[in-house]
## 1
Amino acid sequence: MTECEPFRRIDPDALESFVADVLREVGVVDEHASLLGRALVRADLRGIDSHGVARLETYVRKFEAGGFNPDPDIGAERIALAFARVDADDGPGQAAAVRAMDAAMDMARDAGVGTAVVENSNHFGTAAFYTQRAAEADFIGVSLTNVGPDVVPYGGTEALLGTNPISVAVPTNREFPITLDMATSVVAMGKIDHVAAVTGEEIPDHWAVDADGNPTTDPREVAALRPLGGPKGYGLAVIVDALCGLLSGARASPEIGPLYDEYDEPMRLGHFVTAIDVSAAMDPDDFRARIDEYVDSLKASPTADGVDEVLLPGEPEARRRRENERRGVPLSEGTHESLGRLADRYDRPLP
Amino acid sequence: MTECEPFRRIDPDALESFVADVLREVGVVDEHASLLGRALVRADLRGIDSHGVARLETYVRKFEAGGFNPDPDIGAERIALAFARVDADDGPGQAAAVRAMDAAMDMARDAGVGTAVVENSNHFGTAAFYTQRAAEADFIGVSLTNVGPDVVPYGGTEALLGTNPISVAVPTNREFPITLDMATSVVAMGKIDHVAAVTGEEIPDHWAVDADGNPTTDPREVAALRPLGGPKGYGLAVIVDALCGLLSGARASPEIGPLYDEYDEPMRLGHFVTAIDVSAAMDPDDFRARIDEYVDSLKASPTADGVDEVLLPGEPEARRRRENERRGVPLSEGTHESLGRLADRYDRPLP
């Protein structure tokens, strides 16, 4: 939301209720409708509009057409003392991933660490939603998901890998955990779509390739994304696929169904989460104090031209969240119109 | 070794014995001397010269001056069912990290997953040495280490973070595991030193900064490295520090002692390793078959101009290893001279 002024700001609690109400109208079970409201609005609060309520209309279509199961039987099976497998039963990824992270935290309370893989799942929104849940309970949280193919392998020209994101969150004494949440491509497709639609400017040639697999600077010619730093982002994306897709029994990126268009098709992707219980290693107060000291040393760095302050991973999003909680969730005109259509259809006034 | 022809090739087994013999002369206990021989030569075999026998003379100095403990009491304490802490007692990082990975695999056999942190450790060479050890036993292995400050935080101008590498290895039916092993900076300092010394060419401005913290294209002006992809590599480096330095009780990157110069100073850095037992999730044969199918789908991608084949993470290194096992370990003139000095000093003929 840095490039343009929001069309309107909406109270976050009211927006969350609206999302949940719409989803209940579509037949989504109460618990999942509430969770999706919280997850989507949280993304908007943190400025991750691409994973916020802008997705609601698509989710509704997926639920209506059967690609997302509105009443899934999400089962967690503990396959070892510290390892669980969750079958999402084609339900929303958010519900399955919360279940997986909660199982990982439960196991970590006993074993120091707990891991869960999720199969038969769908789009789970922002990976940070699950790691921050863990960090707020004094666990170091890890969450990964594979997604459908948008990214070429290093040296290849065909989109076979997902943007396969990685999130890790670490407890702090600040009002937010240190939170990494990154795609393993240079940029997300949404960013290129935005440039193509809004500014039309050239993009750097390491972002994407055209239909022939050649690097392109024209955002309208983009056919696939390039991995972050060449072999590094490629390697990270492959590892995410191995953990989320292959180890869980889910599909790997090349086989994952689309979020858009084929609304009756479940995506059948997978997630991988881990929780590490800080208290197994040391008193969490001591750990957070050690983190504080470390953060102070990073913040003490002189800054580059035009930079006011060295920020922690997750700090820009935490600042946006604080502002948006006070001023309201900023919605673009397109997102506002999309919610308006849902409001009319389900006779739920848009707040 | 792509830029210049090696000065000489040496039989890998003979080189390994030479390294171990020299270290035994310095007082390193037998088990660790052998392990260091294997670890350093393995790095050279895989083409990672910067972490191979070129380091031996520095290691010898560290052992002699007391920065590395030649006879450490490396203790592994199981602090939870699936979580261990290893105190390296200022010994060589390789010995501590092998101990940690073996503990992680033992715990994972019971619990599905096992994690170990290491404190009071030193330089551990290539992170892939430990993850490949795990993958060869049908575990997915993760290893991380923090190292001393060479990298600026995103938006900052002072070297406060290490290149803090990440390795993950995944079992396959091929002759090598899928192996990611990457620094979280754009490039390693060694690469810039090489450009400065050998070609003197300009470097891309996203690689490094000068003494004022400004991006530089002159390899002789480089004062610190830049993180991979800006906030992404920065975030990864911070997470590695949190897991390796802060959770273990070791030092974080800004406080880590140098490998060079202050030879009597222990580095007191930390490692983090995890092993995931594939057999907890599925029959390892089935897992490797799933990986095979996935690898085939990546290999089927059309290739970019000038690229013969899409390679897996770790495949270029596996190819070099195969060649070097056959033809001998290639040593540069500088490394050969360095080993020659040790051969003279300890009266051990260089093979």
Note: Chain A has eleven helices and eleven strands.
## 2
Amino acid sequence: MNNATTPITETDLIPLARSMGEALAKAGLLAATAESCTGGLVGHLITEIPGSSVWFVGCAGVYSNAAKERLLGVQHAMLLAYGAVSAEVAQQMAQGALPLYGADVAVAITGIAGPGGGTAEKPSGLVHLHLSATDGTERAERVVWTSDRRGNKLLSAQLALQMLLEFGVLS
Amino acid sequence: MNNATTPITETDLIPLARSMGEALAKAGLLAATAESCTGGLVGHLITEIPGSSVWFVGCAGVYSNAAKERLLGVQHAMLLAYGAVSAEVAQQMAQGALPLYGADVAVAITGIAGPGGGTAEKPSGLVHLHLSATDGTERAERVVWTSDRRGNKLLSAQLALQMLLEFGVLS
């Protein structure tokens, strides 16, 4: 899925958002998102589908560390120990979104969209995603995209939608 | 700006998002959004600009009434009296986003993106936007777009970005 130029657009992801919504609706599930590097993109895509209020309650866009703590209950010590872009913080974001929205399933996205901001240990394009559900499901994904900022955000959104779709289909 | 077909795309709005960010950064202001019908689109557009964490703290995507109450402190009585798509609720959403994010300025968007969901009193395409700032600024906008769902969301996002830009330039 990686590509040096922006590989997809928002409209390319609408069929996936529709399939995801149909799967969640069929399973009677309510979803929420917790978005750092995607900034609200996943929520935007989910709500492109008419009737999405049946399966979607909202996205917590948390661009600052303070917002991650205040809205989602991410622990300050976790941010200090692991950094905002980490599997640990992604998990806390997803777990925090469940009670915040009263959702059955939540997916969190935190990463370095680029082009700057990367380090040797955490390169530009690194994104951690985490899905948590009230049935106890936990799924973590770590990816390093090699697209531009726009592409990295879109690829992250695509994976988030796929994770929700797969959870819905299996539920 | 209205058009029966989708008049603009996400990428068309990136220059406006960049100008807005430059204006807020110059004024030393932190912005947040509270998004119902746009679902996170404004946050997505703002974060398309590298370095946007300097002027943007996050978007509260509140697609359900319960989320509007829980995250933003919108009063249950207001939702019952005026409905989620109203000037009163838009104002409470913007005012609630300021302390939630520790922002200097917040813009809220609540509307009926369509194609369904409209009534004679509140037609499909009706959107209320409200900007509140910690300096006491309040600005309300009521629009009725005549595009499709996607276009209505994009036109709403464009107006939200313009409101933030104008506030930043005047600050």
Note: Residues 10-170 of chain A form a domain with the Maf protein fold (CATH 3.90.950.20).
